[in-house]
Write a structure and sequence with these properties.
Its main location: Golgi. One of its GO terms (molecular function) is pentosyltransferase activity. This is Beta-1,2-xylosyltransferase XYXT1-like. By secondary structure, the protein is an alpha/beta fold. The protein folds into 2 domains: 8-53 and 71-203, no CATH class; 265-428, 3-Layer(aba) Sandwich (Rossmann fold). It has 14 helices and 15 strands. Helix 5 crosses helix 8 (308-316). The longest helix is centred in the middle third of the chain and has 29 residues, at 220-248. The radius of gyration is 25 Å and the shape is globular. The relative contact order is 0.09. The model is unreliable at 10-17 and 55-69 (pLDDT under 50).
């Protein structure tokens, strides 16, 4: 039996002749549709049309040919181009696209192009959980790399549920995946024409790239190298700004990376600080412990508006990153291979901490330490009886459903680290 994915690859051999749409719906995380030929957008009807010069007699098997002369529909697919296919609640918020193959009538000009593109397009959505940095990378940026990198930047991104702030935030990365400006599918009513299109994004696993599924065996390390290329030009600009400011203030300092390395005496440890929930209530004590171990400590408090290049600069220059389980742990990808990532794991979050950040960090080549707190280190210890299942058997609570996990362990828990235990458990990168 030929797999749907292989079937699509084989159909590409005839797509350029017949203009067939091929959809792979076998994936748990996302659907993908691919097509080649006379492709044209029609945003007002949320449609992408593939105009086909063949007659109905030349249609392929499994193609639904309309009997009405008016429609001339050869094939009609629907797809929501977002990578959380299994999660009905969020997929219900994603715009759906119609992908329609039509027989081209000779002499018809109703589908003329307004903008002719000579390179392929990739259609995807930046809706859903966009606004959360984990989901922005896991559900969007990394799948975009997986899906488009083989085009060598000769590709146009067409975005559903387009956000200007997202384009600004990830512009440095997008410019290393495409040489062309992104298109707002709903906001641009012109007819854009393409010779080839991929609708939807491929996703492999949590914050990773499976090299066995990639052309030229590209891996998460290649994605990490792309981040380097994307952010260092901006970082160099930040350094020049600091030099000018220092010179204006009459300070004889150098902030260039090469000079910092020469003068560096202490390894750097970065703490990603949280507000709201899962706060380290004795963060100052943790800082002192790290300083006592010989580290230069920087406390980072990134939020939605923090420029990623600044976070990248701080973490790329750190030997150790420490933080409590949460979306900000996604920034482990900004660290250099061989460095240490310590994730503080609150009660009830062990599986998520390992799955979403621990395992991906190891794949990237980091030395990962998961510091699982004891009950006494959790604020829940004071709120519940010490024999309550919330404290003693977190997994039994998690089994009740995500809403319980979120309400109790994610939104209502802070951490007071036992600094002696923390020092002992994290003192070796072999933990």
């Amino acid at each position: 039996m030929i797999s749907p994915r292989l079937g699509c690859a084989l159909q590409f051999l005839v797509v350029s002749v017949f203009g067939t749409i091929c959809c792979d719906r076998s994936g748990y995380r996302s659907d993908i549709c691919i097509m080649k030929g006379d492709i044209r957008t029609h945003s007002s009807s949320s449609s992408i049309f593939l105009y086909n010069p063949r007659s109905s007699n030349g249609s392929m098997n499994n193609v639904n040919v309309s009997r009405t002369e008016k429609d001339q529909v050869l094939q009609h697919e629907k797809i929501k181009p977002y990578t959380r296919k299994w999660e009905t609640s969020v997929m219900d918020t994603i715009d759906e696209l119609n992908i329609v193959s039509k027989k081209l009538k000779l002499g018809t000009h109703s589908h003329d192009c307004n903008v002719q593109h000579d390179v392929p397009a990739v259609f995807f959505s930046t809706g859903g959980y966009t606004g959360n940095v984990y989901h922005e990378f896991n559900d969007g940026i990394i799948p975009l790399f997986i899906t488009s990198q083989h085009f060598n930047k000769q590709v146009v991104f067409v975005i559903l549920e387009y956000h200007n702030w997202w384009i600004m935030k990830y512009g440095d990365i997008l410019s290393h995946l495409s040489d062309f400006p992104a298109i707002d599918f709903s906001g641009d009513n012109r007819t854009h024409c393409f010779p080839e299109a991929i609708v939807g994004l491929r996703i492999h696993d949590e914050l990773t790239v499976d090299s066995s599924l990639m052309q030229n065996n590209k891996s998460i390390v290649d994605f990490r190298n792309l981040l380097d290329r994307a952010y260092w030009p901006r970082i160099k600009g930040l350094i020049k700004d600091e030099e000018r400011e220092a010179e204006a203030q009459g300070k004889l300092i150098e902030v260039r990376p090469e000079n910092q390395l020469k003068k560096k005496k202490k390894p750097k440890l970065a703490i990603l600080s949280r507000t709201g929930s899962r706060v380290i209530t004795n963060e100052i004590a943790v800082v002192k412990i790290a300083e006592g171990l010989g580290f230069e400590v920087e406390v980072l408090k990134p939020d939605r508006t923090t420029e990623l290049a600044k976070i990248y600069r701080a973490l790329n220059g750190s030997e150790v990153m420490v933080g409590v389980h949460g979306a900000a742990m996604t920034h482990f990808m900004f660290m250099r291979r061989g460095c240490v990532f310590i994730q503080v794991v609150p009660l009830g979050t062990s599986w998520a901490a390992e799955t979403y950040y621990g395992e991906p960090a190891r794949k990237l080549g980091l030395k990962y330490i998961g510091y699982e707190i004891e009950a006494k280190e959790s604020s829940l210890y004071e709120r519940y009886d010490r024999d309550d299942a919330v404290v003693r058997y977190p997994e039994s609570i998690n089994q009740k459903g995500w809403e319980y996990t979120k309400k109790i362990y994610l939104d209502s828990q802070n951490v007071t680290i036992d600094v002696r235990r923390f020092r002992k458990r994290t003192g070796s990168s072999d933990q």
